[in-house]
Automatic annotation (TrEMBL):
Residues of the ABC transmembrane type-1 domain: 126-335
Transmembrane residue ranges: 27-60, 72-96, 125-151, 163-191, 197-214, 246-267, 313-338
SUPFAM superfamilies: MetI-like
InterPro entries linked: MetI-like (IPR000515), MetI-like_sf (IPR035906), Phosphate_PstA (IPR005672), Phosphate_transprt_permease (IPR051408)
Gene Ontology molecular function: any one: phosphate transmembrane transporter activity
Protein name: Phosphate transport system permease protein PstA
Length: 347
């Protein structure tokens, strides 16, 4: 900043505790509004307005209009972030608070075979979820990764690549129920109508996973610097070996993250599995051996069709939802650990 453009207001700044004080005033105003009996949404709006009223005029008087506008934008962005995070926090709180009552040893060691009313667990649903999702992953990851490699490394600009890219975009937007109907129709043609198998659910979920894996892998391949490929080509390394030894290891961390996102996307799907796998009360680890339960369908059935008394069924539904939430969390933690351990860092 030149001396001619310097102004006195550039030297005046609010103390570092000023935003915290304004935020505290907003929290106090929101609590008072709650104590007065207003709705929670109205109390939040009152607190936000109190924060703005406490900070912006103070900043305008001390720092000038430029920094006051900057603080106003900062408050707006912070409020938008809080508004986006609030549903997630509410969801986590609701699932944990309602599912923790049945989160015990029996939940994981028992199935629902012969259980009416209280008792029982989700062992059979956990086994089914892991088997179905595992099969879907085994089918989707090789297809998705190899498709992405072809699109980015071999077929760029070609007609076939453009057609494949178009169909991948279409598959990304199809409703999950359509995938379930396709899998059911495919197996019904082979085994006859009314068939329900775990492998049918895996096929339906793989249709939802493949476009996610393709797009995430393709993006990671774009991030790999071209000079790494050129260096390998300069040493006489074939293109396929360059992809295997240079490109894929460099993009490995991002590919694993994309695969985990795809798994998290489908592990909680309910509609396609209602059609394809059906429901069963006992453990079935054979995807080709009849109906197979999973956590999403189990929670849906327990909540939508409770017996008498109603409370045990609702408690099991929330406990299954909490278990599913923890599985997704573990998958994301594993993805981060794998990325940190095996990801190639460029210097």
């Amino acid at each position: 900043m030149s001396a001619s453009s310097w102004t006195w207001e550039d030297h005046r700044v609010l103390p570092t505790w000023a935003p915290w004080a304004a935020g505290g005033a907003g929290v106090a105003a929101g609590l008072l509004a709650l104590l007065a009996g207003v709705a929670l949404v109205v109390a939040v709006l009152v607190g936000a307005a109190a924060t703005v009223v406490a900070l912006i005029p103070w900043s305008l008087a001390v720092e000038g209009s430029r920094r006051a506008r900057d603080r106003m934008v900062t408050l707006t962005v912070t409020g938008a972030f809080a508004l986006a995070v609030a549903p997630l926090i509410s969801l986590l709180y609701t699932v944990v608070s309602r599912g923790i009552d049945r989160f015990d040893g029996a939940l994981f060691s028992e199935s629902m075979r012969g259980v009416v009313g209280e008792g029982g667990g989700v062992q059979h649903a956990i086994v089914g979820t892991l088997v179905i999702t595992g099969l879907a992953t085994l089918a989707s990851v090789p297809i998705g990764v190899m498709t992405a490699i072809y699109l980015h490394e071999y077929g760029r600009g070609g007609r076939l690549a453009k057609a494949i890219s178009f169909f991948v975009d279409v598959m990304t937007g199809i409703p999950s129920i359509v995938a379930g109907l396709f899998a059911y129709a495919l197996f019904a043609l082979i085994f006859g109508p009314g068939v329900r198998l775990g492998v049918m659910g895996a096929v339906a979920l793989s249709l939802l996973m493949i476009p996610i894996v393709v797009r995430s892998t393709e993006e990671m391949l774009r991030v790999v610097p071209h000079h790494l490929r050129e260096a390998a080509y300069g040493l006489g390394v074939p293109k396929w070996l360059t992809i295997v030894k240079v490109v894929l290891p460099t993009a490995f961390a991002g590919i694993v993250t994309g695969v985990m996102l795809a798994i998290a996307r489908v592990v909680g799907e309910t509609a396609p599995l209602l059609i394809t796998t059906g429901a069963v009360t006992s453990v079935n680890a054979n995807p080709f051996g009849g109906r197979m339960e999973n956590l999403a369908v189990f929670a849906y059935n327990q909540y939508s069709n409770p017996g008498v008394p109603r409370d045990p069924y609702i408690a099991r539904a929330w406990a299954a939802a909490l278990t599913l939430l923890l599985i997704v969390m573990v998958l994301n933690l594993v993805a981060r650990l794998v990325s940190a351990r095996f990801g190639v860092r460029q210097r």
